[in-house]
Amino acid sequence: MASEDHKKLSMEEYDALPQEQRDAYDKKQAAREAAEQAALPYKWSQTLESVQLSVQVPEGTKGKELNVVIKKNGLKFGLKGKDAIIDGELPKPIKEEDSMWSLEDNKLVTIHLEKLSKNEWWPHVLTKDPKIDTTKIVPENSSLSDLPSEERAMVEKMMWDQRQKEMGKPTSEELKGMEAMAKLQQANPDVDWSKVKFN
């Protein structure tokens, strides 16, 4: 049964579960995810605009002892002369010119990555690292309600669309198109719609 616990359910399988089993599954997945994230050599958080990483380094470390390379599609970080602590490909491109790093109290390095695309959540910082479930993200520290109504509507729509995509179901835009098509067909029942092409 243990292997069943770690099996990732598809959206269809998940939606078919009774609420009680869904909650238990969510709890297990969240615990597994938390353990995977805790094992990483850095901590990270994100907003729709950016990703923040923080890495502990030996106390007394000086900026010139650090090796930090921030590229559009990759990130490398470590102490000079030692193996890199972080080294890999980013899941999405970033704006190099707006991304930066700083050393605080000679023991904590903070890396700020400015996302190029401002309307999607990252499942991980490096493509080789374990993923988080982006459908469970509640934006800006659970304060969706604090966002201006237009922004909140946009974020909620994006989250809904992302979930639909993962389930292989139509997004809100595709549903709108289907609705418009259905109305056209109702208004013009004598037209053979199978031969009509839309651009």
Please provide a written account of the structure.
It is a single chain. With 199 residues, the chain is an alpha+beta fold. The chain has two domains: 2-126, Immunoglobulin-like, CATH 2.60.40.790; 133-188, no CATH class. The chain contains six helices and seven strands; from the N terminus they run H-H-H-E-E-E-E-E-E-E-H-H-H. It has helices at 2-6, 11-16, 19-38, 139-142, 149-166, 172-187, and strands at 43-46, 50-56, 66-70, 74-79, 86-89, 100-104, 108-114. A four-stranded antiparallel sheet has the order 1-2-7-6, with no helix packed on it. The longest helix has 20 residues, at 19-38. The radius of gyration is 22 Å and the shape is elongated. The termini are far apart. Mean pLDDT is 84; it is low at 1-5.
Which helices and strands, and how do they pair?
Layout: H1 2-6, H2 11-16, H3 19-38, E1 43-46, E2 50-56, E3 66-70, E4 74-79, E5 86-89, E6 100-104, E7 108-114, H4 139-142, H5 149-166, H6 172-187
Biggest pleated sheet: 4 strands, antiparallel
Strand portion, in percent?
15-25%
What low-confidence regions span 5 or more consecutive residues with pLDDT below 50? 1-5
If classified by CATH, what would the architecture of the largest domain be? Sandwich
Structural class: alpha+beta
What's the arrangement of strands in the largest beta sheet?
A: 1-2-7-6
CATH topology of the largest domain: Immunoglobulin-like
The succession of helices and strands, N to C, reads HHHEEEEEEEHHH
